[in-house]
Design a protein that fits this description.
By secondary structure, the protein is an all-alpha fold. It is 87% helix and 0% strand. Keywords: Coiled coil, Signal.
């Protein structure tokens, strides 16, 4: 996992930022939920929520579900993109190895050509 983060730092940074936002959002929703349930007085005494508070809580819970669903979709898309990027990275690494191999062969050919020219000069 750490190797992937080193190779794809922008993806890891984006995922880390997304996780941070999700956690902050969840904490905010919990604070709002507790505030609505205890009547907003801050005294810690739990009271029965009024009809308006119940409707607000229901809307908040519905929005929470929508946000979680959206975040799951975004995370799924990011995972797909990451898989695509990993596949492209592996292909690029393969191509890099091929290029390095061809460069080594070219160097070997050049050194043999120079040696052959030297042998021809020495022979003449």
């Amino acid at each position: 996992m750490m190797m992937m983060c080193q190779r794809n730092s922008s993806v890891c940074s984006m995922v880390s930022s997304m996780v941070h936002h999700v956690m902050v959002g969840i904490m905010l929703m919990l604070v709002l939920f507790v505030d609505v349930v205890d009547g907003g007085g801050g005294d810690g005494a739990t009271t029965i929520a009024t009809a308006d508070e119940a409707v607000s809580l229901s809307m908040l819970q519905q929005r929470h579900v929508e946000i979680v669903t959206e975040l799951k979709d975004v995370l799924s898309q990011q995972q797909e993109k990451r898989s695509d990027m990993d596949a492209r990275l592996m292909e690029m690494e393969k191509e890099t190895k091929e290029v390095e191999m061809w460069m080594e062969l070219q160097k070997d050919l050049e050194s043999r050509t120079i040696a052959m020219h030297q042998m021809v000069r020495d022979y003449n």
